[in-house]
Amino acid sequence: MKRRINRTITYIMAVFVLFFTAVSLLSGENVVSPRKTIRIGIIENAGSVNISCEGGFSVRDEKNNREMKLDSRKVYLVSARAGGIGINNKILGGSIRIYSLNDKNRLRVNGRKYRGDLRIALKRGKKLTVINKLGLEEYLYGVLPREISPEWPVEAMKTQAVVSRTYAARNMGKHNSKGYDLSATVFCQVYGGLQCEDERSNKAVDATEGEVIYYKGELISAVFHSTCGGFTEKSSNVWETNSSPGYLKCVRCPYCRKSPRYSWKKTIKKETIRKKLNKSGYKVGRIHKIKVAGRASFSKRAININVYHDAGKLSIPSNKFRIAVGADIVKSTMVKLKNYPDEIKYVGRGWGHGVGLCQWGAKGMAERGYKYLKIIRKYFPGTKINK
């Protein structure tokens, strides 16, 4: 009788598994596991780094699979050597993996604590690349406090958690050629490891565990910026694509007015601009004047910038101009220019490229009582959030 009951329970469980697997497949949506691991490039082109651990830890030479235990009381110098990677006085192969012998004890790189394991690879026989491999949700713990303030409303933090998780899931393998998925810098998402975690933002990650944003069954390009200045922008006006996805279009945003970068002014010497453009590969002579060439219909962001100089005219997409001159100097393309004999005055609104989520807008909406699902659909219209 007991065996019959056990067989019946097993059969029922099998039916449930088959049913939910079928539903998942029929939905046509790629499911993202919250336990998925991700590889983050935390240090590149280093001659050496210091590693240590709160408890016992070990290093494995990936060439011969040989393992060596390390002392928790010591700090080890890992350096690029001619014959491989050096740990103090020992020479190992060109790729090593370092891991803690206890999940509760954290590894340190140059004094900074990280969850998960480390991989250190010798690139071109000269420099080290340090990669942190950890769970996707744990990675987000180290992203949120670097992208927004943990003192912001919880619904704004939940919004950022879902957006950052979607960005990571969609961009897995972006830097495969370098041996990792994403960098720890502004070129992907800023990641600070365990050292920068905050209990409040960790709770926002936990509360949205596994949630990502879809549009027509596909993970969206979950881009974000600090402050839109009143309107977000469709992606084709910023990144020179022929069309924009339906969820990356111009959206009116009256919620980011409290941002310290909502409006700004900056005066820059023409010679400074010339040097910065030349350094970025745009060959220009002495600059006579700079003008906006074309504006977006709703936001009035500059589409192109014309630079008139001794050797002629340079026409450059406005976002590329902004990055070349300095994204912290020309903070957005929602800008007006005034030419003077030796300098240019910029009067602008917003900070960042202006596409997708406006972070200060999300904060403003959360302060007015909006929940994170509503905030996400505001900045990414037509999308769905699935777990």
Could you characterize the architecture of this molecule?
With 387 residues, this protein is an alpha+beta fold. Among the domains are: 37-135, no CATH class; 212-258 and 354-386, no CATH class; 263-349, no CATH class. The protein contains 10 helices and 24 strands. It has a 7-stranded mixed β-sheet with strand order 4-3-8-11-12-1-13. It has a 6-stranded antiparallel β-sheet with strand order 7-6-5-2-9-10, with no helix packed on it. A hairpin with a 2-residue loop joins strand 14 (212-215) and strand 15 (218-219). Helix 4 (154-170) packs across helix 10 (372-379). The longest helix is centred in the first third of the chain and has 26 residues, at 2-27. The radius of gyration is 25 Å and the shape is globular. The chain starts with a helix and ends with a strand. Mean pLDDT is 91; it is low at 1-6 and 8-32.
Blueprint of the fold:
Layout: H1 2-27, E1 37-46, E2 48-53, E3 57-61, E4 66-70, E5 76-81, E6 84-87, E7 90-92, E8 95-100, E9 107-109, E10 112-114, E11 117-123, E12 127-135, H2 136-141, H3 144-147, H4 154-170, E13 182-183, H5 199-207, E14 212-215, E15 218-219, E16 224-225, H6 236-239, E17 263-269, H7 270-279, E18 287-295, E19 302-309, E20 312-317, H8 318-325, E21 335-339, E22 343-349, E23 357-358, H9 359-367, H10 372-379, E24 384-386
Parallel strand pairs: 1-13, 16-23
Antiparallel strand pairs: 1-12, 2-5, 2-9, 3-4, 3-8, 5-6, 6-7, 8-11, 9-10, 11-12, 14-15, 14-24, 17-22, 18-19, 19-20, 21-22
